[in-house]
Structure formats: structure tokens, C-alpha cells
Amino acid sequence: MSVTISVRVDEDVKNEIEAMGYKPGEYVRRILIAELKKERGREALSWLREHRLKSKGIPSEELIRADRDSR
Length: 71
Known about the structure:
Order of helices and strands: HHH
Helix content: 55-70%
Shape: elongated
Radius of gyration: 24 Å
Structural class: mainly alpha
């Protein structure tokens, strides 16, 4: 199910969108979807930063090297 959202813009903005070959409604829809994806990504990154495990002070490169050397 879809809903209608109205946006009021200057005539110049509408003309520019149409000059680029887009219908204004489709252009606004694409922009909204792209911005929602960006926001979800920012929220996910923020969550990951808050919930990541703290290292014990040993760089991961050293842990990997030690693991490889033990084989």
C-alpha cells in the first residue's frame, strides 16, 4: 500500500528536475529512498560502534601472525 506525500517547491526547482528528464514525483521518491538507506547505514554503524568488543591491547596483526606462526 502506498501513501501520498505532498511537497511544495519553487517552479524553478520543478523545471530543473524535468529538464534532467525526471518526473518530479519519481525524483523525490528516489531521493527519499536514498536518504533512508543512508540513515539506516548511519544507525547501523552507530550501533556497531556502541556494541563492539574492546580489544585487549594486542593489535590484530600480531594475533594473526602468532596464529600463522604456530602452525
